[in-house]
Amino acid sequence: MNQRIEYALASEFGPSSEIIDLKKFASEAIALSHSVQNLQADQVSIAQECSVADIQSSLTSVWNSPMLSAYLYRSHDIAIASLHGSTSRLAKTRKKSAVASELYKELEDVQRLRANLDSIPLASWKLMSDAALFTRPPRNADYNTLTAIKTSDTDMDAPSDGIDSQVLITFTSHFKVQWRSSVLSKSSQHILMASQTLGDLFEVMPCVSNECPEELLEHGKVVGYKETNGMHGSSGCVIVINGLAYGDGLNEEDYADKLIQHLKITKSTSAIKKARTTIHDTPLSSVSLQINVPYWLLHQGNCEHFIVIDQIRLKHSKDPVTGYPLTLYQAPASLDLCQACTRIPAVWSIVGDVRLEASPCLLCGPCWQSMGEPTNEDEEVLVLPLPKYKLW
User: pTM of the full predicted structure?
Assistant: First the structure.
């Protein structure tokens, strides 16, 4: 697949759903779930039809064997490497993998497993050569830094009573990549209750723009920065949904007012109007929402996000009772390498040092330590600590 088409498809959303009234959806879905629960006979028949008990023992025995499971992992990696090596785009920049023709001595159990897999009559069981047109190497957005569902660490839990608290909404946040403004990349995914507000969604969204360290001022001049160990709250935002701009309400003239003023100055034909309520006073249940429709969010000056609803459903008995908003996915942060050694991620941003080729210049700890402090006292050098990240 052409790389330009591939990026364009990854930045498209849809097809969009009809406008969903969450309160109506909740009442109708709860009534439907009660009627379905009464059909015990149908549930038993469906469970028997979808049961995999006949193959569960064989699957468990294979995956519990380190030798057989390693063979399956290795066979899958060989197939994927062959597909990646056969694509025209990758063949120009990478050498073809020769692992597919590698011979090795198989044990009897492995030979028996391979024979059983080869005897499966399903035509789509194995990856065909045509699958190379629909495969790609993993990207940064394909990895999840979370090893478990992350609950909210702030007091944002909505009351458990009420029909709104029975509806869960899955949001995905996207941002523009630095090297091409028309390409979007997934940054995080969250689950909120319909009784929670747009402000709860904004507060739980991670963003590197919120990691800028606080300035240290003396006589109105920046003399340094405070080291930050994580994300702090944003100064405000505006969310545009269905032509209404919901501001933060932190000041008399918030982000929504500034957006409307900007549209008037630029004589834009957009019909965006300011909403009567702010993000912290707007429950999700009071907003008409659509699935697979991107909603625009602006904060920290010019940092843009696009929020997309992936799913609207009722709360299941196995869902967490508290801790909402939940974070299901968080993309790993892209770390800049040291500009001196180009091997280790940078931890310092050096501003105003004439010994360096650029200002600011990103350096790792060992490189900055080996340079030592500036010898010229007249130089005003600022050392800015870069944000620290951790896996959850």
Answer: 0.76
